[in-house]
Design brief:
single chain; 359 residues; alpha/beta; TIM Barrel; 10 strands
């Protein structure tokens, strides 16, 4: 009898230990929640440099900010125009435009979201291509030194160097990016920096040299940050040419594979990534493709910091296929998928810091 009792106790203890091991294994396999899940709020990049606020361009309203905060978004990518913020290269920022930008940041943070500052210029200043006079590397660095000084070490503010540089060879863009990073750090800003590649910073084309000079996957490993506190920004749409300009998602498989390949590249090189733009029309095949994008990132939270869907904003046309700005109080179909991916808001983990401690 005593022997039987001993065997039962041993079996019970073994079962308990086995369950504990399984529980720990399951916990270890669970992907960490992405740090940032959010939206692009478009409008401040509209119009020419002399545009009138409220007529030619607009910053997001409180109603729009409140709506997306209520949907679980934790970050807003905020596009604006470089020329309007700095009308003369190498000279101070425009006070009125800077205040509008600061007011927008204050509003977004009031509703509990981080802000990704995005000079939405595609690698140009007016019609001058970045890296060429007058929009030289030094001019780009001067711009970022001035802007960084205004938001230096402000919690919840991230610096995106440039929206979708293109027509610039990767080594030339790398030099401009490193100049901007050096300028940001010189003014004492420890904010997280997002560094795009050239060729529209597409995930699916990251390993392809389309301009000569080398592919982003090779050249952009040369990023130099004295604080080593940066991540790479990628964009990826689901139409065949990855432009996001077609009402179909016939490139969904290629887009997903591109994101998988970039995930591998990030992990192999010990880097982190952020998906700054992606979006789909509301058809079921496109919504399925959108779920696939989220699945890639959700399963790889060790290398993906997060994402911002493109796009919303009061001035987006109702018929724009990718638009998720609500109309008449009704959610767009894409929002069901987006909010499911966003999940519940939670305190940021230490790895999610927007400002590097110290200094």
């Amino acid at each position: 009898m005593a022997g039987s009792m001993t065997r039962l106790l041993r079996r019970s203890l073994a079962a308990t230990l086995l369950l504990a091991v399984v529980a720990r294994a399951d916990a270890g396999l669970a992907a960490p929640q992405l740090c940032y899940r959010g939206i692009n709020l478009s409008g401040a990049e509209y119009g020419d440099r002399d545009g009138v606020p409220g007529t030619n361009f607009t910053y997001p309203s409180e109603a729009t900010v409140r709506y997306f905060a209520g949907k679980g978004m934790t970050i807003v990518r905020l596009p604006f125009k470089w020329e309007r913020l700095q009308p003369v290269l190498g000279q101070p920022l425009d006070g009125a435009e800077l205040q509008r930008l600061k007011d927008a940041v204050d509003l977004i943070q009031k509703h509990g979201m981080a802000v990704l500052l995005d000079p939405h210029n595609f690698g140009y200043y007016d019609k001058g291509q970045l890296t060429q006079a007058p929009a030289t590397d030094l001019a780009f660095g001067d711009f970022w030194a001035r802007l960084a000084a205004e938001f230096a070490n402000r919690k919840g503010v991230i610096f995106g160097l440039m929206n979708e540089p293109h027509d610039i060879k990767a080594p030339d863009w790398l030099e401009a990016a490193n100049t901007a990073i050096r300028s940001i750090r010189t003014v004492g800003a420890r904010n997280l920096i997002l560094v795009p590649g050239t060729n529209w910073t597409g995930a699916a084309s990251w390993g392809t040299d389309r301009l000569g000079g080398g592919a982003n996957a090779t050249v952009m490993l040369g990023v130099k940050d004295p604080l080593d506190f940066y991540a790479y920004e990628f964009h990826q749409y689901l139409d065949a040419d990855s432009s996001g300009t077609h009402p179909v998602c016939d490139g969904s498989d290629a887009a997903r594979q591109g994101l998988i390949d970039v995930t591998t590249w990030l992990r192999e090189n010990g880097k982190r990534g952020f998906l700054g733009e992606f979006g789909t029309p509301a058809s079921q095949p496109c919504l399925d493709g959108l779920k696939g994008v989220f699945d890639v990132m959700a399963g790889n939270g060790d290398v993906w910091l997060g994402w911002t869907y493109w796009a919303a904003g009061e001035w987006w046309p109702a018929e724009e296929p990718l638009n998720v700005q609500p109309r008449s109080g009704k959610d767009r179909p894409q929002m069901k998928v987006i909010t499911a991916a966003a999940g519940r808001k939670a305190p940021l983990a230490p790895a999610c810091a927007s400002v590097k401690p110290g200094g």
